[in-house]
UniProtKB/TrEMBL annotation:
GO terms for cellular component: cytosol. It comes from the Bacteria. GO terms for biological process: response to temperature stimulus; ribosome assembly. It comes from Alkalisalibacterium limincola. This is DEAD-box ATP-dependent RNA helicase RhpA. Residues 1-29 form the DEAD-box RNA helicase Q domain.
Amino acid sequence: MSFESLGLSPALLRALADQGYTTPTPIQLQAIPLALDGGDLLAGAQTGTGKTAAFALPLLQRLAAQTPARGPRRPRALVLAPTRELALQVHENLRAYARHLSIHATAIFGGAGMGPQLDQLRRGVDVVVATPGRLIDHLDRRSVDLSGVEVLVLDEADRMLDMGFLPAIRRILGTLPKQRQTMLFSATFEARIKDLAQQFMRNPREVQVAPNNTIASTVTHRVHPVDAERKRDLLIHLLSVDTRRQTLVFSRTKHGADRLTKQIADAGINAVAIHGNKTQGARTRALKDFKTGRATVLVATDIAARGLDIDQLPVVINFDLPMVAEDYVHRIGRTGRAGAEGLALSLVADAEVSLLRAIQRLLGKNVDVEEVPGFTPKRTLRMGNDRPDNVRPAGNRAPTKHARRGHPARNAGAQPHAGPKKHGTRDAPAADPPARLTGDTRAAGVLSSPHALRGGRCAR
């Protein structure tokens, strides 16, 4: 099916064509017609499935079809997002889709100066994309009037609940008209999401494009056992195999991310870090450097697990396993997108075996454990009921189709080159958070491999 078949206006179809988007993703096929009907919508969609366009296109079509009220322009649509990066991404996508419409959007979030945000709001906007904490700041200042909001979107609602935003969301809801369209997008439909929906939605239609905690089948998962004190050396060894390949490395802590970044740079590999202690300017520069290829390694805490749009990133490395198994899904969601193949590596010390077991239970399968020559740990990982042959030397792997395509990271013996709260803001920590239309990386200016943006695209 094409976007034309979904009932979108010519102006939106033209904007999609401008960006080379032709084929809707499953969430867009299901959600857009329902959203265009004007009713409330509860949509289950993982990051990278095109959910931004699934709500942005109907939202823009509704606003364009209705004449705004007389008087100063005030927001007619509100999108709430859990992190600054996601708010920026949604805002840039909205601007790209609205390029042939007279609709103005702005993003307001913590970690940035209030002045420019106040100026934008005073000039008048149709759509506000905001993080809850900073939006509360503006409500307290009486610098934003939400009484004219016709459409409310909660993007990644489960993440906002994880981050403790429920009181802020309830307060914001109290300022909105009761007669409105509400769309809630969440990776999961667990009980608390259902409870939240019942509190402020009216008979929402439901769509779910994939089972909860689904990871793309094109992702290869692999564990490299290693002694804790040798993790850094193994990481640099893996990264050194091909220093040109973009790699996202996850560290559990902010200080650990900074330390790793320095150690990787000292080894002659360009690396940058992003985490909650970085200023918004530093985070923006780091993302730009990674996108343009000036840095080939991005070391991040879980702030990057959601909200950052990385198109066809080839490799994700878990330097530290996440404490919560579900966060593994969010981290690995950065690779293997839109049918592309991806590689997820985890460096696991003996003390992390329980975390690995939890991840395997979540995935419903064992993850291949392969020892890297020269980095064999002193103790074999105790995987409980895993098969004894689950652990094998990396050099014993048969070459895969990736190797035949010239990907050294997937060779038999080779390895790949492998929110945060800012003082003075009220945004909760962005827990160190898809051509088909899965979030416009070019418009958003967010993570994207220069080599991954070639060829056809579908919308985000």
